[in-house]
Amino acid sequence: MRRFVQSMRQAGHGIAYALRNERHMRFHVGAAAAVMLLAALLQLRAGDWALLIGACVLVLSAELLNTAIEKAVDLAMPEQHPLARVAKDAAAGAVLIAAIGAALIGLLVLGPPLLSWLRTGGL
């Protein structure tokens, strides 16, 4: 049990590091919070919540992996190298793909109920 608690603590340190030091991580957390707030206001069904939570988790996980890859590459290759650039760019590309996918899921899930809410004078 002690090892599990230690592993959880170390994971928490990694998340906290990314939140403190990575602007994109803060942006993605803010976007996820906004999506969750909108989903609550629209009183979405459980299946829709699952899609939105899954999309947000995917983006946040990709951003954490991107941070890990960038820091590992910086440690292993302090001077510039073409392959180091490729590794960093590919990791950033993974985040971009996840974010685009999450945005599409958000539009598909939130769009119709949001339009309906706005049409009925929800604001």
CATH architecture: Orthogonal Bundle
Helical segment count = 4
Kindly give the count of domains.
1
Q: Name the CATH class.
A: Mainly Alpha
Oligomer: single chain
Q: Uncertain segments of ≥5 residues (pLDDT<50)?
A: none
What is the beta-strand fraction?
A: under 5%
State the major sheet: none
Taking all Cα atoms into account, the compactness measure Rg is 18 Å
What's the mean pLDDT score? Answer: 96
N- to C-terminal distance: 50 Å
Q: Structural class, please?
A: mainly alpha
Structure description:
With 123 residues, this protein is mainly alpha-helical. The chain is built from 4 helices and no strands. The chain has helices at 2-21, 23-41, 46-76, 82-119.
In short:
This protein is mainly α and 123 residues long. The chain contains 4 helices and no strands.
SSE topology sketch:
Elements: H1 2-21, H2 23-41, H3 46-76, H4 82-119
Helix pairs in contact: 1-2, 2-3, 3-4
List key phrases describing it.
123 residues, single chain, Helix Hairpins, globular
